[in-house]
Amino acid sequence: MIDFISDIREQPWRPVNLVTGVSFLATMAVLAWLIKTYGGFIPVIDHANLAFHEAGHLFFMPFGKTASLYGGTLGQLLMPLIVATVFWKQRNTVSFALALAWFFQNFFNIARYMADARARELPLVGGGDHDWVNIFYQWNSLSQDVVIASNTSMIGAAGLFLVTLWLLWRWLNSDQTG
What we know:
The protein has one domain (28-172). It contains 7 helices and no strands. It has helices spanning 2-10, 18-38, 43-60, 65-90, 93-115, 131-139, 145-172. Helix 2 runs antiparallel to helix 7 (145-172), helix 3 packs across helix 4 and helix 4 runs antiparallel to helix 5.
């Protein structure tokens, strides 16, 4: 396994050209605007994330009630990480960065769900239990739902910023001759 990772790490990242670099930056700007405009819920992306969230509950269900409870959030985070891993192995610079951006974008949606724990205003799939009410109750931190949600949003923002910086660095250090 270590040799496999070493082999991948020795492979160069694909260069970032002007078109893909500018397109990535434009995509990140639009993503930031959408996050700000829609308060952490971007309809097209987050409806897909919701499907991965619900699938996560089912996937983790055989491991017990607690695993199933956390499985929703894990499902929506694991899918972009799996995609990012594929692009990391391929050393596909822009696709890897976009998959990581998808991962960190999820934190805004998760934070929105967290912040709703006491308010319970969000519509739930099938009208079921609110995951984060149950999780915060287990953590004895229901009264901190908004604070934890705010910190979760900050993780998402920091992640998106760092992904953007990483891609800029890769772009500036790309060999454009080959």
